[in-house]
Amino acid sequence: MAILLVSALLLLTPSQVAPDEDLLLKNVSILEVLKSEVGALSNTSEQYSTQVQPPGTSHHIPQTIIVGVRKGGTRALLEMLDIHPNIVVAATEVHFFDWDENYVKGIEWYRNLMPFSYENQITIEKTPGYFTSLHAPERIHDMNSSIKLLIILRDPTERVISDYTQVYYNRLENRKSVQRFEDIVIKNGALNTKYKAIQRSLYDVHMERWLKYFDLNQIHIVDGNTLIKQPLKELQKVEKFLNLPPKILSSNFYFNQTKGFYCIRSDGRERCLHESKGRPHPVVNRTVLEQLYSYFREHNRNFYKMVNQSFDWH
Ligand SMILES: *[C@@H]1O[C@H](CO)[C@@H](O)[C@H](O)[C@H]1NC(C)=O
Ligand SMILES: *[C@@H]1O[C@H](CO)[C@@H](O)[C@H](O)[C@H]1NC(C)=O
Ligand SMILES: *[C@@H]1O[C@H](CO)[C@@H](O)[C@H](O)[C@H]1NC(C)=O
Ligand SMILES: *[C@@H]1O[C@H](CO)[C@@H](O)[C@H](O)[C@H]1NC(C)=O
Ligand SMILES: *[C@@H]1O[C@H](CO)[C@@H](O)[C@H](O)[C@H]1NC(C)=O
Ligand SMILES: *[C@@H]1O[C@H](CO)[C@@H](O)[C@H](O)[C@H]1NC(C)=O
């Protein structure tokens, strides 16, 4: 499928290629989530593939969109789904439904950004910013009210730390001032619930907006932690949800001991998600962690009810 990819990886800026938030966390499996969510493909030949139109293909608007969540593992999910012969994926985050300056360009602009695909293929785009956008649900519904949506989520506290860390390293790279996690999250002894990263982890608040426009059976939630530990298991659920024949196999994954996570083998090529370089470990104060866990607890319970599904978050 890679041949059909637009060479848009070229457009990835260093700030979009995520930093190394892994080091925050002690557990290797969580570390894997963090590593794999960050990255672009490491095989550079792919990045330079040119956009040629194979006969019988055209640009189609996506029949499925991965709408979030930021730092949830959206890149890993997209790259893994790309293994399936009936799936083509857009290489970059398009930000059509969440950025007004793109939305005004119209649906044809959007369609033309999609990779070439055959009639029997599903086009998938991922822009994690959609999940928390006020306008995205309605706008996506306007485009196709029966669209299928994928959301990949992880423990909301882990997500906050990962979000913070990405911003932290972006700021370092841009020579801007940085603050300790605890100093942002705690203000005057209390949890700073206005902090954007915390707001983004209120999954119930955001989900409510999506459920105003879409039936629950149009939305599939991928467990980000499971995807990293047992990719095949989660991907088979997605194949089922998309009514695709099961074509993704265990042989499409191999565990790279050095990297500490799964890489992909398909179309005779091997590719791993972007690997970040070593960084110092921000270790979060236990008391602050507990405050976050307890803040999210009720929101999580509310979310489980909304989606009729439970997760083993703190
Ligand atoms: C790390 O993850 C494994 C399974 O993924 C779990 O059994 C173990 O308890 C975790 N360790 C810690 C310290 O969280
Ligand atoms: C809308 O989405 C559904 C579900 O993916 C798909 O079957 C249908 O073809 C889509 N319609 C258009 C116009 O893309
Ligand atoms: C495994 O990961 C290491 C370290 O990132 C990398 O150098 C190597 O090429 C990878 N091997 C495979 C087979 O993917
Ligand atoms: C990158 O892709 C090329 C051809 O598509 C392949 O020959 C090569 O082995 C791949 N390299 C890695 C590190 O996966
Ligand atoms: C963690 O933060 C609490 C207050 O929020 C403080 O009392 C405690 O000393 C901190 N612990 C460490 C190890 O820094
Ligand atoms: C909730 O999920 C259970 C099993 O996962 C299912 O049997 C039940 O029909 C679902 N309820 C709703 C309202 O979707």
UniProtKB/TrEMBL annotation:
InterPro entries reported in the protein's UniProt record: NST/OST, P-loop_NTPase, Sulfotransferase_dom
GO BP annotations listed: glycosaminoglycan biosynthetic process
The protein's enzyme class: transferase
Residues binding 3'-phosphoadenylyl sulfate: K71, G72, G73, T74, R75, R154, S162, Y262, K277, G278, R279, P280, H281
Catalytic activity: alpha-D-glucosaminyl-[heparan sulfate](n) + 3'-phosphoadenylyl sulfate = 3-sulfo-alpha-D-glucosaminyl-[heparan sulfate](n) + adenosine 3',5'-bisphosphate + H(+)
Active site: K71
Signal sequence extent: 1-19
Subcellular location: Golgi apparatus lumen
Family that this chain belongs to: Belongs to the sulfotransferase 1 family.
PANTHER family hit by this protein: HEPARAN SULFATE SULFOTRANSFERASE, SULFOTRANSFERASE
Name the record gives this protein: Sulfotransferase
Source organism: Xenopus tropicalis (Western clawed frog)
